[in-house]
Write a structure and sequence with these properties.
This protein is mostly helical. The chain has eight helices and no strands. It is found in: Membrane.
Length: 194
């Protein structure tokens, strides 16, 4: 039963993440909130963090039940994947302002954003998602629990929807420039150049 609750919590987290990040909702709130809208991103970040902490606290209460007992090469490979995922996320975050991303430094309407196509964004369109996938796979390989498998499964199921809604916002923001970028650069798995 705990796993069902965990799946429902992830579904709630991902649904709220997509709804609160939707361009249509943002336009409505911008109109309704006026000047106060500049703090919406901070509200969104704090709310998401709160939900994530609740999810983690619930996860910690689930007694471990093992899919397999991690040891040796699988465990080592898990640590490597998680580390590589963290590196991808950290390096790709250098391309944008973390304080603006979180909402600590609200962006004024007069400030224009530019499409980032350098660094990791030259290889994949969604390096943060790619990093998360590697971290969750690594976590599963290191822990070997059904809980970590549920975390990974929920992320994998959500990714196509999350990418769809995020790219909808990016197309609205950048238009043809983003459509051209999307044609050239894969979403999560980089192309191997031979």
């Amino acid at each position: 039963m705990n796993y069902l609750y965990l799946i429902l919590l992830w579904a709630l987290f991902y649904a709220l993440h997509s709804i609160l990040a939707a361009g249509k909702l943002k336009r409505i709130l911008k109109e309704k909130l006026g000047e106060a809208y500049k703090w919406y991103r901070l509200f969104y970040s704090v709310f998401s963090l709160f939900l994530f902490i609740l999810l983690i606290l619930f996860t910690l209460k689930i007694p471990p039940s093992y899919v397999y007992y991690p040891e040796g090469l699988a465990e080592y490979f898990g640590y490597m994947l998680a580390a590589f995922g963290t590196i991808i996320m950290m390096q790709s975050s250098k391309a944008w302002s973390l304080s603006k991303f979180i909402g600590l430094k609200p962006q004024e309407d007069s400030e224009s954003e530019h499409l980032i196509v350098s660094g990791w964004y030259k290889r994949i369109r969604h390096p943060l998602y790619a990093g998360l996938v590697l971290i969750f796979i690594g976590y599963f390989l290191v822990s070997g629990t059904y809980t970590s498998l549920v975390h990974l499964g929920c992320l994998i199921i959500y990714l196509p929807m999350g990418i769809y809604f995020e790219e909808k916002n990016l197309i609205a923001q950048f238009g043809q420039k983003y459509l051209n970028y999307r044609k050239e650069v894969p979403a999560i798995i980089p192309k191997l150049k031979l």
